[in-house]
Amino acid sequence: MAETAVVTPDTMQTAQWTKKDLLGLRELSAVEIRLLLATAESFREISLRPIKKVPALRGKTVVNLFFEPSTRTRTSFELAAKRLSADILNISVASSSVTKGETILDTVKNLEALKVDIIVIRHAAAGVPQMIARHANASVINAGDGAHEHPTQALLDLLTIQEKKGRLEGLQVTILGDIAHSRVARSNIWGLTKLGARVTVCGPPTLLPVHIEQLGVGVTYDVREAIRTADVVMLLRIQHERQEAALVPSLREYRLRYGIDRDRLKLAKPDVLIMHPGPINRGVELDSNVADGPHSVILDQVTNGVAVRMAALFLVAGASNKPNGGEPE
Amino acid sequence: MAHDASPLNAAKAKAKLLDADAIRRAVVRIAHEIIECNKGTERLALVGVRTRGAVLAQRLAKAIEQIEGQRVPVGALDITLYRDDLSRLTPNPVVQATDIPFDIADLRLVLVDDVLFAGRTVRAALDALIDLGRPEAIQLAVLIDRGHRELPIRADYVGKNVPTSLKERVEVRLQETDGKDEVMLEEDHG
After folding, report:
1. Is B90 contained in some domain?
2. A137: distance to nearest CA of chain B, Å?
3. In sequence order, what are the residues at sequence separation of 6 or more whose Cβ sits closer than 8 angstroms to the Cβ of residue A96?
4. Distant-in-sequence, close-in-space partners of A46: CB < 8 Å, separation ≥ 6
5. Are A41 and A166 in contact (CB under 8 A)?
6. Contact state of B82 with A54 under an 8 Å Cβ cutoff
7. Cα distance from A318 to chain B (closest Cα, Å)?
């Protein structure tokens, strides 16, 4: 598929999804990302109907295989599958045989023996979904692997920006917070830059990876500068559970230096969008009066998440219809 | 879904079934028939099957408005998610949004499509419509009926009946989507 930034409705008609899996945005072309977004846009309407269900994936079985706790992503995938009439089962690590010493590949082979069509996986280790995808005939969707990628989150962010701003190209997007530990940041950097947005990352030096600028983003430690020019400010959760290494002195100090409150928001453009992948630490990275304020599109992100996951399930299911397991010919 | 307007698929044109004037006349006649059959436009609405059925539905609405002075509601339906061949197609086709900005419950709906062939598109469209509510009645209007039904479905309003062989293709081109109005009978290579 050609790497072009502009897709007209005509070429969209001929754009085809041929990948068995959705593992990350890094390996997708701009055309493929736009096809995912266009499909998701079409699916948005289904969730507004009195009967929120279409028969597209009737008879397909989806498994949510979550080795890390998750409520919103898992629920979002579950609703997406149900609204497409697929059957879905949820396996979390606490109730799986992994606690009895089973390897991940054995777990996957067992799921395949149960004739599962799509595996949605989250794992604390980067690369696990990719490894499974190589060994499984079932389609694999990455629902977050370590600090690597979280493609459906980035896609729902792109869809929300496109919905609110009418475009992605030429927009200035600031990603603010714990970039080092964030798969959301990495997937968004790939997606946004491929679709022509300019990205700046901002945060305390301890939470910005070295050489991050090699991904084609601007870097600043100055939150005022990062806010002032932004069309979109994407906040990341400060991950308490990873703060044992004392990467920031205290949550209070983080809030003072990098948190977004009403006063700091005054520096921003009047039509700035405030985004957050959730869950929010109110009063740390984001104050309540901003989280619930007119610039916030946080709940639109949640709504769009279902549409994006419906699109992901629908497209990979179509690709794996191929008799050879969906490998591009 | 018997159309593929891409010029790259250079199927050999055999005959022009309808030219622009003939399409216009067929639309006006069907509009008259719809009004007559439904005794006016009360609780009448049109739903076109994307892509070209939706265009035809808009044209029919305009014709009905010129005859009766009443604008009837028009919607567009994407039936991709209701197709019975989804698991056989590779890969899944591009989905466009369904856009029916009115409640279809208790309306008399006229479903509009360009070509009636196997009847599977209409079957999918009926399922899609019924998921949106319970209309009082659903009627079917098509520009071309080319035969070869695989399901017990018939059209209430037909622009032109065309006996075809299975090796032939009917290409409907409309100004809004293809830049010109014509219906061609073409020989399929495959």
Report:
1. yes
2. 16
3. A102, A107
4. A52, A53, A54, A83, A307, A310, B98
5. no
6. yes
7. 4
- Chain B residues with CB under 8 Å of A115 CB are none
Of B86, B94, B131, the CB nearest to A12: B94
Contact at CB, B98 and A35, closer than 8 angstroms? no
Chain B CA closest to residue A315: B92
State the residue range of the domain holding B105: 11-188
A45, A55, A321 ranked by CB distance to B97: nearest: A45
The answer to whether position B19 is within a domain reads yes
Q: Kindly report the three-state secondary structure assignment for every residue of B5-54.
A: CCCCCCCEEEEEEECHHHHHHHHHHHHHHHHHHCCCCCCEEEEEECCHHH
So what's the ipTM on this one?
Answer: 0.74
Q: Return d(Cα A80, Cα A74) in angstroms, integer.
A: 10
Q: How many domains does chain B have?
A: 1
**Cβ contact A321–B92 (<8 Å):** yes
B2 belongs to a structural domain: no
Tokens encoding A56: 């597209």
Q: Does the residue B74 lie in any domain?
A: yes
CATH number at residue B134: 3.40.50.2020
- Chain B: give the shortest CA distance to residue A311, in Å: 9
pLDDT averaged over every residue in chain B:
91
Contact predicate A84/A108, CB 8 Å:
no
Per the confidence metrics, is the pTM higher than 0.95?
no
Tokens of B188: 């399929």
pLDDT per position as a tens digit, A25-82: 999 999 999 999 999 999 999 999 888 999 999 999 999 999 988 889 999 999 999 9
What residues of chain A lie within 8 A of the CB of B131, using their CB? 49, 51, 53-54
